[in-house]
Amino acid sequence: MAPTSDFEQMWSDLAPVGRSASSGGYFRQPWTTAEAELRSWFAEQCAARGLVVETDGIGNQVAWWGEGDQPGVLTGSHLDSVLDGGAYDGPLGVVSALAALDVLRDRGFEPGRPLGIGVFVEEEGSRFGRACLGSRLVTGATTWEQARELRDRDGVFLADAVSDAGLDPDAGLLSLDRVGTFVELHVEQGRDLVDRDVAVGLASEIWPHGRWRFDFAGQANHAGTTRMEDRRDPMLTYAMTALAADEQARLGGHRATFGRISVQPNGTNAVPSLVTAWLDARASSDDALAAMVGAIGRQAHDRADRDGTSLDVSAESVSGAVAFDPDLAARLAGLGDWPVIPTQAGHDAGILSEAGIPTAMVFVRNPTGVSHSPDEHAETADCLAGVTALADVLAELAGTPA
Amino acid sequence: MAPTSDFEQMWSDLAPVGRSASSGGYFRQPWTTAEAELRSWFAEQCAARGLVVETDGIGNQVAWWGEGDQPGVLTGSHLDSVLDGGAYDGPLGVVSALAALDVLRDRGFEPGRPLGIGVFVEEEGSRFGRACLGSRLVTGATTWEQARELRDRDGVFLADAVSDAGLDPDAGLLSLDRVGTFVELHVEQGRDLVDRDVAVGLASEIWPHGRWRFDFAGQANHAGTTRMEDRRDPMLTYAMTALAADEQARLGGHRATFGRISVQPNGTNAVPSLVTAWLDARASSDDALAAMVGAIGRQAHDRADRDGTSLDVSAESVSGAVAFDPDLAARLAGLGDWPVIPTQAGHDAGILSEAGIPTAMVFVRNPTGVSHSPDEHAETADCLAGVTALADVLAELAGTPA
């Protein structure tokens, strides 16, 4: 079976799931109907290949090819999306894993150690605000006792969302005991590969990054009758902070974004009482990240003093720098003369790497670099090159017994 | 019957309706359960006074004391609130109207011409974005054909919201044929009366004011991997525009507020694709208002050019300056040596005045000036002074036949 037909068939099967008719983007939030459909689809794909899928208490999934207790090779990614996201971020890694397995079987490959395909839940943190929640729980980076109290935007507890999705959070989590190496294929989310004119690359590191919640509190008041000098308007403090974040990131060559905001009462003719905004910040080192977030916070506090508002900043999640196993990257790069490049995006691969599992990432070229957007794209030829590259990587890693 | 007991009883009856347990503020949006309860309460109060309430097809209400076709005197206000609003804005005028009628009857007053008490719906525009919608429809300033297609934040059409509330929009609207004069009592929303150390004042004029919708469009993208210089982030354009609005209003002694915002997709790790924000702007003259909004728009467009975003500005509602009948104000001011002051807030009184009905407003002191907020307040003694003042005004206006 040629990879082309398999890959393209799987891709078109997934295309309508969770897609917005108006924007063309995807709403595949965890523990929703769309995500349940994706989980069923994955189980069917595995079953069609004679693999048995294990689904854990929160919806992480894994299917192993080959028996034995020796350390195996796991590949895969995630199927959830950001709000109004693209088709490739996550699903490309899962579909490519299945297609790569087909390629290996077509080649007559027999795994020397177990080869697994996995799907982690809530990688984007789009519903409960914690990115890589599934892999964090599996590795113990986050405990269930910490996570179960998280609430989504509608106030639903994580534990209830999981139960309502027909899962049993008390049924336990996936074991990573059999995972000797992890490989995640992912669409690139920048333009490094475009600039280098190659279809495939490997990851060297993930920048440190995190999410901080800024609560700007003021006093609700009438938008007409309240003199400007009598106001305590938190929207102004927020606005200056958003511009300060942009400036700080530009100055340091880092990233800082306010993409989510919630305003109370959010009425046209009322000065707001509260503006809550979330800062996504990333930098090339842990120190640089802390310095940038500190500088943004200081500017925000100074402006709050001027505006008569108050500010509370709390870190919702902070991930330190992740250096992927350099020996592994060097060994794999030799298979295809692939460049080894850094990324500013968090991934389940980063969580598993931090948990001590030798980990590699394979990137597939993104012609515009656009991601987390309905405009996210990868050419089919590049996706197929990614499948072949992933098959080569898996053959290298799983070809011989541990 | 002393006004104290009546006023305070009515006030405490209304206190729990539509009140948020968490903020203490009010959510009395039109055509909701809370507003239906207020409408029933008003009908019961009128019935207890032997008055028959007429409710029109969209929920405007009026009850007349006295027969005859000669031009009468209408007083009243509204019962809806902004989101998380105060108790006084609107209801104080309705409760005071009922209490003033009690005072007049206690005095043995017999109207020389019909005296009516009215309630207009959706004065705040908190649900469908058009302030004074009820009075605009009654006067013809807005037609039903224009209004029926309005949608609330959940996409519900106005016509459906009205029908779902058990009203029949095809049943017609209140006639103003019997209204020779309109008087609206309202809590002051600034601090003019505090500064003058008096409990009651009259209105001279309403500043011109309006609402403009700003749609800032950019490109959704990954908050981590997208270099700052590759972004088209509409949040930055918005942030600068919010600060520019504040600056323009301060420079001119006007008002400009961005209190409402909607972000797409509103995800922490995505550069937004679209930021929609509503500008509430008010100034002391029509020219000054147009100049200020124009200046804000130009600064916003300049910034959009720098950010690679685009901007569309549309006026949702603009109300020109309203000068209340100066002879009427002078005549009434003599009753209590009341100051005559301008307001920056729109009112149904402004709509009726613009429709050619001689109109006056009575303001009751607000000790902090705070309004459109759970903190909005007026002292009971001042409210009772307002009731007496309104009774005096009504006696002056309705004491003799037309």
What would you say this structure looks like, in words?
Chain A folds into two domains: 3-207 and 321-398, Aminopeptidase (3-Layer(aba) Sandwich), CATH 3.40.630.10; 209-319, Alpha-Beta Plaits, CATH 3.30.70.360. The first copy, chain A, is 36% helix and 23% strand. In chain A, the strands form three sheets. In chain A, strands 1, 2, 3, 4, 5, 6, 13, 14 and 15 form a nine-stranded mixed beta sheet that branches. A four-stranded antiparallel beta sheet of chain A has the order 9-11-7-12, with helices on one face. In chain A, helix 1 runs antiparallel to helix 3, helix 1 crosses helix 12 (380-398) and helix 8 (234-252) runs antiparallel to helix 9. With 402 residues, the first copy, chain A, is α/β, with parallel strands linked by helices. Chain A has helices at 3-14, 33-48, 91-106, 133-139, 144-147, 158-164, 192-196, 234-252, 286-307, 326-336, 348-354, 380-398, and strands spanning 53-55, 61-65, 72-78, 115-120, 179-187, 200-206, 209-217, 221-222, 255-264, 270-271, 274-282, 310-319, 322-323, 340-343, 359-364. The longest helix of chain A has 22 residues, at 286-307. Chain A contains twelve helices and 15 strands. The mean pLDDT of chain A is 95. Chains A, B: Belongs to the peptidase M20 family. Chains A, B: Keywords: Hydrolase. Chains A, B: This is Allantoate amidohydrolase.
